[in-house]
Write the structure tokens for this entry.
Amino acid sequence: MNRFEFMRNIPIGQYLPVDSVLHRLDPRARLLAVVLVVMALTFAPGLWGLTLGLAAALVCLWLGKIPFKYALRALLAPLPFLLILAVLQVLWNAGPDDPPVLWSWGRLVLTPHDFRFGLALLLRFCGLILFLGIMSYTTSTTQMTQGLNGLLKPLRVLRIPVDDFVMMVQITLRFLPLLALSAERIAKAQAARGADWDSRPGSFFARIRQIVPMLVPLFMTSLHRAENLALAMDARAYGSGPRSTLAELKMQPRDWVCLIVAGLLAAGILFL
Amino acid sequence: MHGFIIDKMEPLILLDNVTFRYPGEENTRDVLRGLSLEILPGDMVAVVGSNGSGKTTMLRLMNGLLVPQGGRVLVNGLDTSRKDQLMAIRRQVGLVFQHPEDQIVATTVDEDVAFGPENLGLSSAEIRARVDQALKAVGMEEHAQRSPHMLSGGQTQRLALAGVLAMRPQVVLFDEATTMLDPAGRLMAIREMLRLNQEGMTVVFITHHMEEAVMASRVVVLHEGKVAEDGSPAEVFTDAKRVGKYGLGLPRPARLAERFQEWLGVMTPRPLHPQEWLDRLPVYNGEMGEAAHSSVGSPRIVGDEALIEVRGLEHTYLVDTPLAHLALQDLNMTAMSGGTLGLLGRTGSGKSTLLQHLNGLLRPQKGSVRVGPHQLADLDVPTKTVAKMVGLVFQNPEMQFFEQYVGDEISYGPRQIGIEETLAERVRWAMELVGLDFEAFKDRLVFALSGGEKRKVALAATLALRPQVLLLDEPTAGLDPAAHLEVLGRLAGLQAEGMTTVLSSHRMNDLAALASRLAVFEHGTVIREGPVGEVFWDFKGLAEAGLEPPLVVRTASRLRERGWPIPKGIVTPDELADALRACSPGGAQ
């Protein structure tokens, strides 16, 4: 593992460029559908609803031609935490200790109800992680900005500068990897001249001491870069009038189908 | 106007007695001082001049990014000082900046190309058509969906050009757009410009390479904010003295012709293109000597101790992520003490990655790296210890300065490792080594220095650690001709003092002047290693790695073909001069 690969910590580039039904959906429909399902999963009370959500996630992985291994790997990292949470939930949940009591030890009482609670927690988080994953596997950063642009458009009526906001999001996404690369360069330049980057500082303060000397040069190079970018945008006639977009978003029948399915699914998750 | 005969073409861009000074109190100097220039439709203009002569400023005035304080700038009759005409001007004049990666806005290639047309408010269908056409024009249509940060330097440069072409301008301005490219990429970029020009586009480009300038139909020399020379390449590059006044040199072929006229005859007009020079070399009709069958023995210093040894090295960036890529594989290499090892190969062939292994920044994932007594695969060897012994000067080091003042920047290293003498003494020593006056420079702001001065500060900052080995990654890239010569001189000086050096460069002439041995990189491994006189004479091997030998080597080889009794293995002008001197007088036909 390389000490200087800050790029690793940047959660973009997860997009899987394959051609699938999900990839072809209008980004607005996809964003909205995921929001619906995620909300439903968050508030779903019952096990059956959550199971339905999880099953739907698996179907979506299949529809999106996303390798199961790839998606399940995203689950593995938080799994230990989820399991611990689930166990705690089973042991200490505040629900009524309805009979039949399976096992008890002092104040710890285990009932089938407790197990249902723990299982619900597991299912809920797995479903959420999978759906958010599906979103980032099927949506490029560009589609994300297009989708945002489309969904936020109505706010223009309220005189909210949607265009500028979306441009900001886009440039931020574009700059993140560059920022990581700049940080890498500076850290390497300092290490090459004797700064200590070997030890993984245990204490919070040691870590701060390592990072602070990087901040000023990082700001300087970023400002410099931003200045260049502003000039380049100017030279390409930014701000000359109302902008148009390359991608013309048009809701197809399949996008409406997707929204309807998402709505039904959300209802199913909530009320089953 | 119909039927009116115009005997003089209307200029597309007119700069009329322009003066310009950057705002701010610290800028006390006019960058442009009464500059006048006309760019005509269909022109292909190369702009040359030393750093600070006003080239970039002039280009930015041409599309209204800057507005002059005195005089005026007209584009097709539109005044750049009028805000209401600015957008019409930006449509007509496209500008490709020096660092292409800084001008990319979007997160995919086609969205970025669409940025300009989107700003013009065109319909989606029209934008699509323009994007496709522009991408096709630069040969990037396969990459339409890729992320800009995944592109190579050459691809990024072409993307920047496509973004400008999609605006359908009448003129494209290039501000040193080829600085970051290797020789092959550079040549491709120039050919791209020539092709655009043949299709009717007006092209203006800034360059520090006279070899590129001669490919234009018109050369404009800027000096101290004014146009000093303006004419065809043949008119401008007549003799070394004339361009020397502006801190420039002749293109390589003309320089060689001047240097060897005593033996090869005076060539008028001077050859400006390599092929032309090689074709005009005379046939030998003097007496055959012995030399033709021998080789120049390498007179260069090479120690006998293998100071750095790399065996079976492999490196993958971003392992276990979708972005993982293999940068080095099964790489073997040795650097002898006291010698200079040159690394050459196209961009992305692994040179920089190797250099970062040699001072412990990167550790072997597979294979071994030994530097002096240290085995770097052993993580218990602290990077600090290695850094003290092996100094690395990065590519474009001025982008990595982290102190404000020259003195602080240079003393950073000694402060980290702790030294016995005082810091000031150490800094003074390092600055003198690179030719910077301690008193004059120690309190200057790093960001306000010229390109050559910055490079020297970076060199001094590394030398201040008193390393035994110096690693240099493209030490002369992006410098103007005068600064280039100076940095080269300093490096030769260090070498004479016995510094072991590993030098990576795209400039074959620099390698010929400095290196004793060469290692040729291709696909992350060394495909050939040997004495400089052998590697540069292996034309086929070089071509495989996308490289061309220095012009002196090609000259010597061509002379041999024409019967000259000169030995193989010549790599510098001095060596060629010695060989020619040894030929019998009056040998040229």
